[in-house]
Design goal:
Elements (H helix, E strand, L loop, with lengths): L2 H24 L3 H12 L10 H19 L2 H6 L1 H26 L5 H11 L5 H10 L3 H31 L4 H33 L2 H21 L4 H14 L6 H28 L1 H6 L6 H32 L9 H8 L6 H8 L7 H32 L5 H33 L4 H24 L12 H25 L5 H19 L1
């Protein structure tokens, strides 16, 4: 890498983080603002090429792993039928719909390339939709379906893409060969993911070192993805399985591993997502310059038609499935019509589609390759800007919310805290009985332990009322947290002053600051 390219990437990374920070401060969807900023800046700056290998082998594995690691295996298992029908069935349906449309509009284009375009733009990227949905209180089931779809649909789409590109280059589209390749990729990804997941679970049970475990976790997605792809299996499925397995067993790890892991993957996902969405917008000039030999109005018509079919095909598939489920008497477990409409409008495309388009081999005629890249770019931008900007309004308009779920969550938490309190106090009484008679200091410690358990249980019950007492007054737990935070700030100032006066070493300061920070983190939680 030359210094100029390195400087370009550094500026993209720094600018992306700055734009994402503004979005977080204003409460705006960061992916949409990043894409818009990239589009505005693209004509003013030198081209920043989107390297397919960079996206598929550097950005995609950790983003998939972070999403899987943070997901709920149990919730995904509850919606496995819906996730399968979207991540496999809908991808196949969208690929065929777009491929046939492109073949009708451009009969001179190789049929395999038309289906390759369908596979390229078939998988939605749910990052923007999930971010908006969480902020606006989308029901948990709908969010879980979106997350599950985004975890697995890339595997289906990339396998279809490889089959179609192979047929375009080789000259024949063999459906049976394509089916065999798809089954091998999926099965191989499952096997590799399970083997690696079980091996890592065995290893982590014996390390018990938070620094080592989290360092290994940073390497895991890249290693698993490369291992699967090297034997032509699905790296996407392998990474997702490992992430789900390790995320589901994090309760077996030490507290240090959990605390560090949560921060590491939040920072990693934030940083990488900021870069990839900015890179989408920055491809504007590169994509437009490649179009030659077509009349502008025809190209615009092709782009509008592909975008429309991409959006409509998702609604057709979703409403057909839900209608069929109701006819078969399975409507009770299906999304409501309002939730189905929201799921249909959440089909925003992302950087994986662009990376696949850029990866079309140079043996494909340059004119066709440029057109496919342009149609991919307009579909990605169109879905992000049209669906992404109207998605919040749609959620509000349909009055879909998770208020009841949130209340039930708080109620369940309060009941669990009460049960845990009783178990903890019972264990404390057992230990006291084994110890025998207590002296004054030991009695004070026991009283403090009882008070701490009581306060944590009380806080959970108070949240059922929104964190306020009668007449909007501050609850005892809220008062405790506010006063204790102010006390911690005063304590920090004293420690820093003693360090500045050279009466306390920096190493000691860091240790005591860490203790205060952990206590404040508990208060915030």
């Amino acid at each position: 890498m030359n210094p100029t390219m390195g400087l370009q990437l550094l500026l993209v990374a720094g600018g992306s983080v700055a734009v994402a920070a503004i979005a977080r401060r204003k409460g705006w969807p960061a992916p949409l603002l990043l894409v818009a900023a990239g589009l505005l800046v693209s004509p003013l700056v030198p081209g920043v090429p989107l390297q397919p290998e960079l996206v598929l082998y550097v950005f995609l594995p950790p983003l998939l792993y972070a999403a899987a690691f943070d997901s709920s295996y149990l919730r995904l298992r509850d919606v496995k039928r819906a996730v399968t029908l979207l991540s496999v069935g809908l991808v196949l349906f969208s690929t065929v719909a777009v491929g046939l449309l492109v073949h009708l509009m451009l009969p001179d284009l190789n049929l395999a390339l038309a289906f390759a375009l369908g596979a390229i733009i078939a998988p939605p990227d749910a990052v923007a939709a999930v971010a908006v949905g969480r902020r606006l209180g989308l029901p948990r089931r709908a969010l879980t379906i979106l997350i599950g779809e985004s975890l697995f649909n890339d595997a289906t789409a990339l396998t279809l893409y490889r089959v179609a590109i192979g047929a375009a280059v080789g000259g024949a589209l063999d459906l049976w060969h394509g089916l065999g390749e798809f089954l091998f990729a999926a099965g191989g990804g499952v096997v590799i993911g399970l083997v690696v997941a079980l091996g890592l679970g065995w290893l982590f049970n014996r390390t018990r070192d938070s620094l080592v475990e989290n360092t290994l976790m940073l390497l895991i997605p890249f290693a698993v993805y490369l291992a699967a792809e090297s034997v032509h299996a699905s790296g996407v499925i392998a990474v997702v399985i490992v992430g789900l397995y390790l995320g589901n067993r994090m309760h077996l790890s030490g507290f240090g591993t959990r605390l560090v892991s949560d921060s590491v993957w939040k920072v990693t996902a934030f940083f990488l997502e900021a870069i990839v969405f900015a890179l989408i917008g920055l491809q504007l000039v590169t994509v437009i310059q490649g179009i030659t030999g077509y009349e502008p109005w025809k190209v615009a018509g092709y782009a509008a038609a592909v975008l429309a079919v991409t959006i409509v095909s998702r609604f057709v598939w979703l409403f057909a499935l839900t209608s069929l489920a109701r006819l078969l008497g399975r409507g009770a477990s299906q999304p409501t019509p309002q939730q189905t409409a929201i799921l249909g409008w959440a089909g925003m495309r992302g950087v994986v589609s662009l990376a696949a388009a850029f990866a079309i081999p140079p043996t494909v005629p340059a004119r066709d390759r440029a057109l496919l890249l342009f149609l991919t770019f307009t579909t990605v931008i169109g879905t992000l800007l049209i669906q992404g900007t109207t998605f919040p309004a749609l959620i509000r308009r349909l009055h879909v919310s998770s208020e009841q779920e949130q209340y039930e969550d708080r109620l369940a938490e309060a009941a669990a805290q009460q049960a845990a309190l009783e178990a903890g106090l019972a264990e404390l009484e057992r230990l006291i009985g084994e110890h025998g008679e207590l002296d004054e200091i030991e009695s004070q410690v026991i009283d403090q332990l009882r008070e701490k358990s009581w306060r944590r249980s009380l806080s959970a019950w108070e949240r059922l009322g929104g964190g306020t007492g009668a007449g909007g007054a501050e609850t005892p737990s809220a008062l405790y947290r506010r006063l204790r935070r102010d006390m911690l700030q005063a304590e920090r100032r004293v420690f820093v002053q003693l360090r500045d006066e050279r009466r306390l070493d920096d190493e000691v300061l860091r240790e005591v600051m860490a203790q205060l920070d952990f206590e404040e983190a508990i208060l915030e939680r």
